[in-house]
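Data card: per-record layout.
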Amino acid sequence: LVRATSGVLLDAQPDDGQLAGRIRKVMETADDTVMDLHVWQLGPGHNAAIVSVATTAPRPTASYKEKLQSIPGLSHVTVEVTALG
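The structure for this 85-residue chain is written out next.
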């Protein structure tokens, strides 16, 4: 039981950071840069992410969240957008 739940209790990052890498790859474009990213496991097959994006071409946060729908296992996503320039 301890082995099965310790990752959740300790806010372990799933997939040895691979999920964070996939999120960063989907989110970053010529206009958008991921400034801060936190990913943690909520439970088996469920992960949360907080993504801070700096951009020269801001769009509604819903458009950034839509991009992340292609990544399975993200159950709760928060996106912060900061306009540059």
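Known properties of this structure: The two ends are 51 Å apart (CA to CA). The longest strand covers residues 32-43.

See the next section for split statistics.
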